[in-house]
Specification:
This is Polyribonucleotide nucleotidyltransferase. This protein is an alpha+beta fold. α1 (88-101) packs across α2, α8 (401-415) crosses α9 and α13 runs antiparallel to α14 (609-623). 38% of the residues are buried.
Length: 785
Amino acid sequence: MNLTPISVKFDIGDGRMVTIETGKLARQADGAVTVRLGNAILLATVVANKEPKPGQSFFPLTVDYQEKFASAGRIPGSFFKREGRLSDSEVLISRLIDRALRPLFPDNYFCEVQVLVTLISSDPEVMPDALACLAASAALAVSDVPIQEIISEVRVARIDGKYVINPNRTELAKADMDFIIGATDKNIMMVEGESKECQEEDLIQAIEAAHAAIRIQVKAQEELRDLKGVKGKREYAQPHQNEELKAKVTAFAKDKIYQVAKSASAKHDRSDAFAAIGEELKEHLGELPEEDQPLVKEYLHDLEKEVIRNMILDESVRLDGRSLDQVRPLAMETDILPSPHGSALFTRGETQSLTTVTLGTPEDELLIESAAVSNYSKFILHYNFPPFSTGEVKMMRGPGRREVGHGNLAMRSLKQMMPGSDYAYTVRVVSDILESNGSSSMATVCAGSLALMDAGVPLPKHVSGVAMGLISRASDGKWAVLTDILGDEDHLGDMDFKVTGTRDGIVGIQMDIKVDGLSMDVMRSALAQAKKGRLHIVEAMYEAVPAARPEPKPHAPRMEKIIIDREFIGAVIGPGGKIIQEIQRETGTTINIEEVGETGEVSIFSAQKEGLDKAVAWVKGIIAVPEVGEVYESVVKSIMPYGAFVEFMPGKQGLLHISEVSWKRLETMEGVLSEGEKVKVKLTGTDPKTGKFKLSRKVLMPKPEGYVERPEREERGDRPERGDFRDRGDRGDRRGPRDDRRGGDDRRGGGDRRDFNRGDRDHNRGGSDYNSRNEKPQEPTFDAE
């Protein structure tokens, strides 16, 4: 058994080598290759049926991309512990491959083709989506499946002002432009990506850089094909044609189609008129052979396309009567639904989106899991396309690939204007398309921007989007760019592209090109016209909603984020979560704490502003450092014979000694203060040994008239040198009679020695009451924290 593979290698541009290999794995497929970069390996296979299904009238291409969790040494987290349906990210990569491959097949090829691309070995630094289309195209290149050209795709990102091909994951995080571009050796086929307000010329430069890299990859595939010895492509049965019938269809229906096309009628009226022409044609043709019957619909459709395209190119007249660069009428409303946190209705012609915004906590974040990485997203956008939006009846079975793709384009565009990590809300945007006739994804972008501002999400700028079309004629080289295309114009055009952006630049793009030889000059012109249309829409959006609400609506959850030093995280949480649970219970809030580098992010959510303010003050009190000389509003926690313990900051308590409660000498605390009473105190100092806080209430009160301040006792370290014993004078005379030394209030200026002379000393020691000679309970030691 010979399992020796055939392989080619090429440099991706910076010394990294890509290897394409065939002949070892999946040998029963029509074509199979592996593509390797670093430790990332993708297996791509292609199988095509030899014959089309009876009556098949379209090309059935299926493309599936899947990441095996084993490729990264992981077990899936699902209940079944195995890979299930494709995730959204896998669907999006499948769409990238599909959109680039589909134009490669002949128009009359109707055999079913299945392309499967699987990530079998993962590298955390390699982005596999940039290699997936290369693998799929290489599998087709080494097969006999009839494709007309070889293609490839690359990611191009602008990092520090330079265009980098297929950057690694770490580098990509620093990019301000990120595009996936597919192309043949000669022509650009597909563009999709996002940027931080780039200019049209920046996009052209990115496309040109990507195309240069793609040519190298196409050449490598050709080399692999030649090494394998592929001589040609398989023959396939050509569908039945009848040129005589085609001429009859043209003669009967051409003028009728032109009259309907030029009538500038509404979508359904136009559809009904075209349908009526079809019925008249059937009656005119009479009975036809069975093999010719399907051709009538095909020829009529092709004739409609030809007539409308020529009308637009020759007369600059569109189906709805607009000029080539005209945007349909706009209507915008916000705050139209009472219960959602934000809402908007955006209508452009016959396309309408009802979009809502919901604000949630970090617990509502979306887990995005792939083989290599698992990340949480705080911004979610879902797009729904119910069948009634086009006046049809269809089964509702959840979102399909189209919905996932349209929603992703809108999400990537709006994400560029979303606030950063300091914005703690999880934000979900849902767009429900109520009417559709051209570019509902762009309506989602506009409605989403309006709804986000209605919800109070601090978007700095509006984001708008417009769908563009291109029609060209090879016979004379004539072409026309269409702004804000209709659904019918989308189907008959040679290029359709959607551009989103702000007043200052492009933030998202999706482009599919169906014609060969599109020059960069034509693309520049198309992008310039798209900018004009986009700015027209965004100016109307500013007129409707000039800026975001200053704060969320009253029924929306309130949020505030506090950045703290990492060392305080434990203090906020408390032992076993005691403190944070108490804060949440007492204030009715939800608190999330996340360690980020050297800091902690404390996100506080509440439906009531009062609870939010209380929780914020509580947390700030825990992390605050008490300042000597500051006055605090304290709460009495307990009463003792020697004073009251008060909480002057959240989590910070101290003893308000009986001697510091009032200028008046107090014999007892009974009736002076009560538990729960609010008392203003001043922090006069802290004990350097124990860290205990010295609090005083009396210093905030007016001093009694005639009150004589007793000199403070000198600290031992500050006493003057004692000098000679003979200089001390008569000790007995200096001290005076013993009874006088123990004198009462009159001799001490109204004070009491126990209170004024020993008060601070008693607080500092915190152990026993030296004055009372054990006549009162001992004061407990109280920690500063």
